[in-house]
Fold this protein.
Amino acid sequence: TYNNIIDLMARKNQLINLKVIVDFAINSLDDKDRQVLYLKTHYSLPMREMCSFLGLKERTAFRRIDRAFINLTEALNNSAYNSKLNNILQKELWINNVREDIKERKMNFKNVTNSL
């Protein structure tokens, strides 16, 4: 009851802090990365539509999306809020799952670019 309300308010504050940290990192990205992340996360466009909208070939679009997520991760890691972010991440398992997915994308992206 009362403790549940306090717990929910604390969680809400953490998620608001997380949004502020992510917004800060997104705003530090270049325009192309922001555009790709916005299209990918807000509109969930199918790849064919995203390619058409951006005027890109599918392979280039995939690389740009991967690079944008990698750049976002690096911006978060280099952020002045990194320690606060790590505290939030310890309590949010779903975010850690996304983080691991991004690490895997980064490794795949490096492997692909090294093989070119």
In short: The chain has a mean pLDDT of 81.
